[in-house]
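Now read the record:
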Amino acid sequence: MDLDMVLNELSLKTPAADVPTARQLMSELIRTLLKAIETGVKRKLRTQEELYSVELAPGYPIARWCNDKDVSREEIRFFLTLTTKPFWKDAAEEIKHEFDLSEVLYQGESAMGLTFALVSDALAVSLLSESKWDCSRLELQLRHLDDREELIEEPVEIVHASRSVHLGECGDWMKKRIRITARDGIQLWQRRSELFPNLEFCESVRPQVESLKAANPMFRQVAKRLFELQEYCLTWTTGPFNKDALPSKVTPESESRLQQFADRFNIRCPDGENRLFSWHLRMTPGPWRLHFVELGPGRIIVGYIGRKIQ
C-alpha cells in the first residue's frame, strides 16, 4: 500500500531570521524527503494550497526560493516534482465523509496536515523551523464523540520527520506500513489468508471489506487494525485474551447496546455457529468499528467492519 508524505503546515508558520537560514532549512527538508523516497515512500508530497506564497524568511516566499540562483537547481526541480498538484483538497471530502472528526490539535492549534497524516496513516514531514519539530513522533490531541456520544479528548501519536535521522528512528513503522501491499479492499479480501493467517472472517465481512476503495483513507485504517490483530495473535500463545496488549484501544459493547441491537451483534461464523461480537476496535478517528471474537490463543474471528452499529 502506498505510503504518502504530508507537509505539516504549522512548521511553515515561523519564518527563519534570514534568507541563508531559510535556504539551509529547505536543504534539510529536501534531504529528508529524498531519504524517505529511498526507503520506499511514495514520490509525492501533499501540501496546503497557496504553498508558494508562504514566507520562509521575511520577504522570501517559497516562490522566490524556487527562483533563487543561490539554491541548487537539483533541489528546486526535486521539490517542484513532488508538489505539482498534491493538495489535501482532493482527499478532504472523503475524509469528512468517512471520519466523524470534531477536532485534531497540536499544542492547541488546529492541524490540517497532521490530521491528514493521522487518518491516512501517512508520514508527516516538517520544516525544522522550531525545536519542537526535531523529533520522530508527534503527539496530537483528538477531540471526538465517544460511544456514549460524549465529547472527549485523547492523545494520539503519529510518525514524523524533519531530518533524515528521524526516518531511521521510525524505520520499523515504515517497513510495516509499506508491506501492506493490497491495493484496495477487494485485494485485501482475496489475500486475507496470506496476510492474516491467524484471523478468520465471517462471510458478512466480505462486502464490508471489498467496498473499500484505494483512495478511501478508511481502507488504510482497516488494514492497520487487521495487522494489529494478526501480530497480537502471533504473540498470544497461552492464557486468556489481553485487550491491553493491542496498540489500539479495545472495548466491549455496553450491555444496553448488546440488548438493543442483539440481532446485529450475533453474527454467523465460518463454523456455522452464531456468536456475540462484543469486543471492538475503533478507527482513529472515525465512526467505524471492527468487531471480533477471541477463540483462544492465536485465534480471532472478525465479524463486522463498518460504521458504528445503530
